[in-house]
Design brief:
Rossmann fold, 4 domains, seven-stranded antiparallel β-sheet, alpha+beta, 25 strands
Length: 529
């Protein structure tokens, strides 16, 4: 689920007609002072982070004047809260609260329907409220076609002991909350606390809304950067990785960084799994061997070779990892030679120097292992391929042995260089990149094996040179499956005339920043000496 910040959720509630405290989100102390000057009354300042219990973490402050608000904002901004550095705070009017309530909509997987929950007692979480005050909590399933009807909302509130005008006000909020959740495809939408003020008005004092990952594309207006559930803002590398998955739904590519920075002396591994259960077993094996995970990555569901290639390039954009470990399901129903070719292209481009252990259990695993052995024997690193009969524990032991043999040399990231394509090359676009064939080299080719290697049959010979056998439009739409077989055959068996360019937007700039940062740090250390 993709979570919204409080200020984003309150904007949606306000637009739906639900009362929210007056205020604004700010990112500087001066802006906080200006908001209080405009409001002209006491305020509450709340850090905007995806954590609960902000008050107990020192993330909520009160101020009675513009000057005090500025001072409190300066104290909050930049504060470290769990995995967050606070960048924004919400400054809004302080309410005179008489009573607190809870309202929330979740998806009940058992009943396969939305479930509206209401409690006439507020608190930190509905689970605790239900345990301590079960008679004060009620819920009702919602018909997805009819929505939450007015009488259903009234009956729901009435069951918690509320009546009269207050019942009507609260039930109105519930029906509007449901409409917000339905409109924005929320997996959950919570107002906690919903409050009754001394003036008799009902407000959403706080809210938490999470959007279904698979519906994020329908709501660009929400500005969600990554359709993933994080407990912190996504890193730059995670953003780069997500945009690979966002534009290519052939198989799965999930990437999560486990640490901000990897010290050279620590034993961190770049991890590439395939399938949830198998990946968990493989991670346990690595951890039990005394290593740490630099990242979690999943490439499963029969991903294209191009997607596995991009995954490897992103994993290898983490400096100081000591090895590359790929292992997932032992019986994956995917053609493992696609993954093998993707890894070959990535490792060869990177001139990989850290060891790799690649367990590719599943369909055509023998062919996949052969590809790794044949085409990675000349790179600096030792890379070993294994199949379903080799346990994750055995592969983890091999990872440890190879790293020890390699002297635990840390991985150094390299700049990404643009391909040097001949101006006379035959070029056509494919689904996520382009292919360039240097026909001047093809005249020396004796086998024309690139055409035979192209299983989808998008290449043919014309005047003894490989050209498209399909239209350029069809190649771009996906007739070319980006299996990388033609490039690998030509590179290792013939004239190295084929270049498949698979761009990863933002990765070149990301690496350049890291390289420059490390260079600047080295200069500073040298000056100190």
């Amino acid at each position: 689920m993709s979570r919204l910040y409080e200020y984003q959720g309150k904007k949606l509630l306000r637009e739906a007609g639900i009362r929210v405290p007056e205020g604004e989100v700010v990112s500087t102390p001066e802006e906080a002072r200006d908001v209080v000057e405009r409001l002209g009354r006491p305020v509450v300042l709340k850090i905007q982070v995806w954590v609960t219990g902000r008050a107990g973490l020192g993330g909520i402050e009160f101020a009675d004047s513009p000057k005090e608000a500025e001072e409190k904002a300066r104290k909050l901004l930049g504060k470290k809260i769990k995995n967050y550095e606070v960048e924004k705070i919400l400054v809004e009017e302080k309410l005179a609260i008489r009573s607190e309530y809870f309202a929330g909509l979740i998806i009940d997987d058992a009943q396969k329907s939305p479930l509206m929950i209401f409690s006439s007692v507020g608190g930190t979480g509905i689970e605790e409220i239900a345990q301590e005050h079960p008679e004060k909590v009620a819920h009702v399933p919602v018909d997805i076609l009819k929505g939450l009807r007015d009488y259903e909302a009234r009956n729901l509130v009435r069951r918690t002991g509320i009546s009269g005008k207050l019942l009507l006000k609260i039930s109105d909020v519930l029906t509007k909350l449901y409409k917000v959740a339905r409109q924005y495809d929320a997996r959950s939408a919570e107002i906690n606390p919903m409050v009754l003020t001394e003036d008799g008005d009902v407000y959403a004092a706080d809210c938490h809304i999470a959007i279904d990952d698979y519906a994020v594309f329908r709501h660009p207006e929400l500005g969600i950067e990554i359709a993933r559930e994080f407990d912190r803002p996504p890193s730059d590398l995670e953003k780069i990785a997500y945009h690979v998955e966002k534009k290519d739904h052939r198989g799965t590519f999930y990437f999560l960084q486990m640490t901000d920075e990897i010290p050279k002396e620590d034993r961190y591994i770049g991890f590439n799994g395939a399938g949830g259960g198998g990946s968990m077993m493989s991670m346990d094996a690595i951890l039990n061997s005394g290593f740490h995970l630099a990242n979690y990555c999943d490439t499963s569901g029969n991903p294209s070779a191009s997607k596995v290639y991009r995954a490897a390039k992103i994993i290898l954009s983490q400096p100081n990892i000591k090895g590359y470990f790929a292992s997932g399901s032992g019986v994956a129903s995917q053609e493992q030679y696609h993954s093998a070719r993707g890894l070959v292209k990535a490792f060869y481009e990177e001139k990989l120097e850290i060891p790799g252990v690649i367990r590719l259990g599943g369909n055509y695993e023998e062919k996949a292992i052969e590809i790794l052995a044949a085409y990675l024997k000349d790179i600096p690193a030792e890379v070993e391929g294994y199949g379903r009969d080799d346990s994750p524990e055995f592969c983890a032991r091999r990872m440890k042995e190879l790293i020890d043999k390699n002297g635990s040399i840390p991985h150094e990231i390299r700049p990404i260089c643009d391909s040097d394509v001949s101006v006379d090359a035959y070029v056509f676009e494919i689904f996520t990149g382009k292919i360039a064939i240097d026909h001047s080299k093809c005249v020396l080719c004796t086998s024309k094996g690139c055409v035979d290697a192209c299983a989808p049959g998008i290449l043919k010979l014309l005047n003894d040179k490989p050209v498209l056998a399909v239209t350029e439009e069809d190649a771009k739409k996906g007739k070319c499956t980006e299996c990388l077989a033609c490039e690998i055959f030509c590179q290792f068996h013939e004239q190295n005339a084929i270049d498949i360019h698979l761009p990863i937007p933002g990765l070149k700039e990301y690496r350049n920043r890291l390289i420059k940062g490390r260079s600047d740090l080295k200069t500073i250390e040298e000056e100190k000496v």
